[in-house]
């Protein structure tokens, strides 16, 4: 198709087909920032769902990173509502601090997942396209990611409450621009997308491909697809190895048998999955670090600690406590599904020493130091309280 040709309904249906199966009268949710990629995704998803007797909900995220973020979210929602679309605005309210954009990305996905599940939409669509895929591959390559990371973004990924779908990963952004223009919608332009302070913006400039359709971008996207196919084969082998070597405990740690794990390439991939899961990191650790940890048979890596037969969160790397409110995530690992007024959720810290033996559940001390605890206003501390579930940011280990 020409670079400026809108994406057609039949073409989009063909892209959705391998991501199913879908229930009759499918209910979709779509993350919408107001940019051309997310607007095009919503328009196409809405038509696709309506043609099958279903519906689509636009989830507009107000990330609060700029003074005019709230007004932009209201404007985007208003334009869609004026056309009769179902829209919900999500306010993230992120505190300031380091790695703000990375935290915003993770918070946005968590908020989208929760809102989609609450709205009865088991499928959450995101508008990532070919250039995004190429940038992700380059970004992870520069960061030293292994083969799993170089597979970049998957077209379908299961989260605890929804299935995340990216049907447009091989679509040039110019065609998404054309789709929005053909619908008569005016997209929002986020100035941070042109701010050279951010690494992804500098990578985009290096690609020099505003349309997302040059041979270089196509080659990078094809490479990501090849790595994805290789990843799928590797993950099948990893699942078999983990069944022999690891027991994942509900408290978010692993009982690991180094002998059964082995020292080969499958062992390296398996350990990478485990480290990512127990540390709550969204991405796999660097390959060199995994190889070193495997060769040593213990140590720390990426916020995970391997000691003897225990692989768990490194206590010193745990995040600060957060307000204990429904839907909050702590440390990239633990999700709270209820409000606890006046309490915070975090590591037990010094309060661990005064807990009754029964509260410790016979868990290793190093595991306990990284477990979630509710600290109430009256001084009470609940270790591994009810309403808290282990939901690592990078997904399950395999």
TrEMBL record:
It is found in: Cytoplasm. CDD domains: TilS_N. GO terms for biological process: tRNA modification. GO terms for cellular component: cytoplasm. The keyword Transmembrane helix does not apply. It catalyses: cytidine(34) in tRNA(Ile2) + L-lysine + ATP = lysidine(34) in tRNA(Ile2) + AMP + diphosphate + H(+). Its EC number is 6.3.4.19. ATP binds at residues 33-38. This is tRNA(Ile)-lysidine synthase. It comes from Roseomonas mucosa.
